[in-house]
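User: Please predict the structure of the protein below. I'd like the answer in structure-token form so I can feed it into my own downstream comparison script.

Assistant: Understood. Taking the following sequence of 84 residues as input:
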Amino acid sequence: MALMITDECINCDVCEPECPNHAISMGEEYYQIEPSKCTECVGHFDEPQCAMLCPVACIPVNPAHVETRETLMQKYVRLTQTAA
């Protein structure tokens, strides 16, 4: 499952630097998460850092990108191999 940032985002800049996969960037109006890079921090942390730190709790699971923990781990491996 990739996460998503809703329009309740207040652009506080807390989430972007905490994303180990660099999946978060500023969109036209508020931050957004690139689903192909989001592993919900699987492989890096026990919990998604962006959702843990978000002061307005606007980072739910994206229903359009449901993935198993195994799939997220495979994505993590793929992303870290290409970054090396």
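That's the full token string. The chain has a mean pLDDT of 94.
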